[in-house]
Write a structure and sequence with these properties.
There is one protein chain. By secondary structure, this protein is mostly beta strands. It folds into 2 domains: 3-202, OB fold (Dihydrolipoamide Acetyltransferase, E2P) (Beta Barrel), CATH 2.40.50.140; 222-269, Ribosomal protein L2, domain 3. Helix content is 4%, strand content 24%. It is built from 2 helices and 17 strands. The chain has helices at 11-14, 209-214; strands spanning 3-4, 18-19, 34-36, 61-63, 76-82, 91-96, 101-105, 115-116, 130-132, 141-143, 145-146, 153-155, 163-169, 172-176, 182-186, 190-193, 271-273. The protein has a 7-stranded antiparallel β-sheet, with no helix packed on it. It has a 4-stranded antiparallel β-sheet with strand order 7-6-5-8, with no helix packed on it.
Length: 276
Amino acid sequence: MPIKIYRPVTLGRRISSVDAFEDITKTEPEKTLILPRNKRGGRNNQGKMTVRHRGGGAAQFVRIVDFKRQKYDVPAKVAAIEYDPARGARLALLHYKDGEKAYMVAPLGMKVGDTVVSSKEQVEIVSGNRMPLEKMPIGINVYDVELAPGQGGSLARGAGVGCQLMAVEGDYATLKLPSGEVRLFPKACMATVGMVGNPDRRLIRWGKAGRTRHRGRRPEVRGKVMNPVDHPHGGGEGKHPIGLIHPKTKWGKRALGVKTRDRKKKSWKFIVSRRK
């Protein structure tokens, strides 16, 4: 979907761009498929801040997205393409033949009136259809991939991303993830054919601090402009380097390029090659 650029009548507009929303066909969400979103401002159940720079933002409703799509062999018609404030991708409103409604992450090229189906057997290779990895042809692009059968899609759900099916051997299928990592998945895991829509979202320039505040992101302060008591990078006169061999976090741990994955994690055996 294209990015819209306005005339630079203000300083904020001069360097900003917005999503054109030309693919949106329905402005109001389905009332039976939304919940109010409770904001926590980055704090846990004890009121302690566990994630910094969160808070505020525009009021939102949570869309209940069906990542399992377990109504097998029941065709569903795409009734609308909708905006979701919680993700960069679009949502497709599905109307099943039995009258049930559900949301799914819309693939690239999906239009109102298309028909999609989810099945345990092989179905037509059309964007939006869902089936096990073992039933798909090698080399196809998929998204919304399960880590374990029946768990529901949890990988490759961001705007414009997709995985490539490399091979199916034995009990496992090999997928190349958007990060470049090559990983094994149980071949019974479900995935959706195609790539996630709205790939141009990554080109948006937010332009001013106010738009970032509307998204619920509070200001971030660089460590090197703090005092030594507040950050390892702090202190000094004027614009100075951090004065350390390695960049540090606010709490003194090494940052940038440090591998944080647990070496004892059981899923190591499924990784064929790590991302670069």
